[in-house]
Amino acid sequence: MQPPIDRDDWTGLSGDPLPIDAVLTWAVVPSCGAVVTFTGHARDHSDGRSGVSALEYEAYESQVEPKLGEVATEMRRRWPDLGRVALLHRHGALGLGDTAVVVVASAPHRDEAFEAAKFGIDALKSSVPIWKRETWDGGQSWGLEPQHLSNPTERQ
User: Fold this and answer.
1) What pLDDT is stored for residue 143 in this prediction?
2) Domain boundaries defined on the chain
3) In the chain, N or C terminus with fewer CB closer than 10 Å?
4) Domain 9-136 CATH class label
């Protein structure tokens, strides 16, 4: 994944490790004094499940990019002064500690950068068609618990 040179939103889905350093460098622009980064990593436990040893992400690939674009658009609608926005997610098998998702928001001030980044990860998780399978001591699940995708504009 390479940073875009002609726009201020970087969205994407990748089977390769996410370029965290490149995202951080790309997000810095002269008009913004704050860059907030959220990275989500594969961890060794989940709610009620210890011994998680692997994660696998599957995506409805043709719909991921449009949905990520909707999230970025909504971030800009709510925080019009945002500089750059990145919403990147992995798919495929991840080991413990691997980065699954990166959300970055740059803004003139820290409050809007923090708020936008929090909204970005929450909206991504609730509206982008990406599913996770966890493997843990004694079982595995594709996250078949009820999950309803929402529209990013409906988030508070």
Assistant:
1) 64
2) 9-136
3) C
4) alpha beta
